[in-house]
Amino acid sequence: MKMKADSFIPAAKPRLRDVAEKADVSIGTVSRVLNGKADVAEDLAERVLLAARSLGYTRRAPAAQATVQASNDVAVIGYLVDSPNLARVTADPFLQHFLIGIEDGVNRNNGHLLFATCGEEVARGAIPAMVAENRVQGVILKPSPTTSDTWIRKLNELVPVIMLMNSSEDRSIFSVMCDNYAATYQILRYLRELGHRRIAFLSVDDLGQAPSVLHFERMDAYRKYAGSLGCVEDPAYIQVPTRDHGRETLSEVIEKGLKNLLALGKGERPTAVVCATDTYAFALLALAGRYGIEVPRDLSVVGYMNIDTCEHSVPPLTSVSLSGDEVGRVAVNLLYERLQNPSMMVRHVSVGTRLVERLSCAPAPDS
Fold first, then answer.
1. Which pLDDT score, from 0 to 100, does residue 74 have?
2. Reported pTM
């Protein structure tokens, strides 16, 4: 049985996770089946559909109109992810958590959810069908680093938009993000409590792409708080090597930054590094041994986002944790508030974080 893409996923119980558990498959597989993707084996797809039917998980036909006039009307919410295909989205655990939170938030508001990728539309400058055909009253958008502000503003002119984990350059679009400033302060304070003063910051500048708002805020927070917390302030401690995606691997780019830090005098080298993402931290951990660095004895390493792999890296990575579920729920609540109050002022909501301590950090070697 083939299902039409961009079809409704009702946000009433049971939910995606319930179908996934009953069919003994991942949430991503359930999403692919319910969105009519052909990359799922027929027997697996049938198992998912049987599980959905047995749980009473049904789809609604697309709505012809999408106008909410009052808070007690049933709203149809769109969730758009700037990605080439659904498989890439569902393979990302963090994006799955956003979807779980969004579905839960819509469920709590007795609404309906329409989910699709929009990478092709963004590339062509086109409006996604769910918006162009008036199927939704509002959209939660997870942009990529290459999503243009012009395209986002055009979308926002047609329906209310809430951006996830990003904000427009002129901050004219509603957004929900993690609190990067509080998170960075947490990290620096934690490292200072371990006796570290020479603390570096490591990020990556992707050639041809707009700078990541998340990475910029983390670096800006590092600059803002390092001195007041008693860290040594040295421009050489901020390493943002440039990466050409077509020619360099992430490991090669991170190695540039590591070499620059090791080129400092022995008494000037950092004893801890704050990496702008967990993936940068993993690359650094993999390179450390090659340069005779033992983590955490010689160098403490911290990342951001606390993705699942953090528990299994060597050593397990200390990282700032953000609840993707909570980000999704907050975005839904903000969108409903905006639908009910069309003239409300633009808001940028920050979701709190917590530091998860593992084995990649230790007291400073010279403390």
1. 64
2. 0.77
